Amino acid sequence: MTPPKTRLIGATAIAALALAGVLVAWQASSDSPADLAQLSDDDKLEILNSGDADAFSELLEAEEAAAQAQFARERLERQKREAAIDVERAEANARGAAYWDSFDPDSIDLTGFDFAMADVLSRDERRAMLDDASFARDFERASSVKFARSKFDCNSTRFVGIRELLKDKADLPLSVDQGIIFSFLNYLGSRAALETGDCSCATQHVPPELGWELAERLSHHPSAGIISDVFARQNAMQSAANLFFDSLNGEAREFCKKG
């Protein structure tokens, strides 16, 4: 004996059926089974309680069809959003390539830098020092945000790029690791956003090589030569990276909020 077929009712259909419906009202006013899905909850409940197997089946099919239609609409909207993000990503990549290809890390003014800056512990003194630091004041700021933050992750693979970069680099006079390069890249991204008004991934996805070049310059800075303590030499570059990060990070975040 063949067992009766069992219809699998989706969660949407179950919820809808539990809400309700009315057979008499529908039979009097509708020519299309699809209209069943538009009935009120009370009308659906009446159909559910009527004992009419055909009406129950038609209501179920209408609910499932409505659920499928809603799913299709949501999928289309999601595809539209994804397509828009793909366009935004391509545009940001093009702007970023143009900006970073022409950026010269040697243009950063280090004349006012000294590793002793890291010894300033007072928050107010440190902030005043960073506000006047040459590496934070040697470029012109944009007057407004031209491109707001991107709707996708700018830096999902940045640490991978830094790790691969460091594998091929010789040791510097001062210790440099991934976190240090990451802080320098954040400094460069903040600097670029403030300068261009572009807060998108165009300026935030900084090539790791630029962070390394800045670290290399600092590692050979005259003030590094007077650091004799072994522990201090191990931590000097981290302190410098924190200084550079702190010099522009807060300003850049506030600036980009305007977009």
- The total count of helices amounts to 11
User: Rough shape?
Assistant: elongated
Number of domains: 2
Task: Tell me the total number of β-strands.
Answer: 0
Residue windows where pLDDT falls under 50 for at least 5 positions: 1-34
- Order of helices and strands, N to C? HHHHHHHHHHH
By helix and strand content, what is the structural category?
A: mainly alpha
Keywords: Coiled coil, Signal
Care to describe what's here?
Residues 59-93 form a coiled coil. The chain is built from eleven helices and no strands. It has 259 residues and is mainly alpha-helical. The protein has two domains: 33-102; 106-257, no CATH class.
Overview in brief:
The protein is an all-alpha fold and 259 residues long.
Record the SSE blueprint:
Elements: H1 11-19, H2 23-29, H3 41-50, H4 53-101, H5 123-132, H6 134-137, H7 158-167, H8 178-196, H9 201-204, H10 208-219, H11 230-257
Helix pairs in contact: 1-3, 1-4, 2-3, 7-8, 8-10, 8-11
Based on the model shown, name its key terms.
single chain; 259 residues; mainly alpha; 2 domains; 11 helices; 63% helix; 0% strand; elongated; disordered N terminus
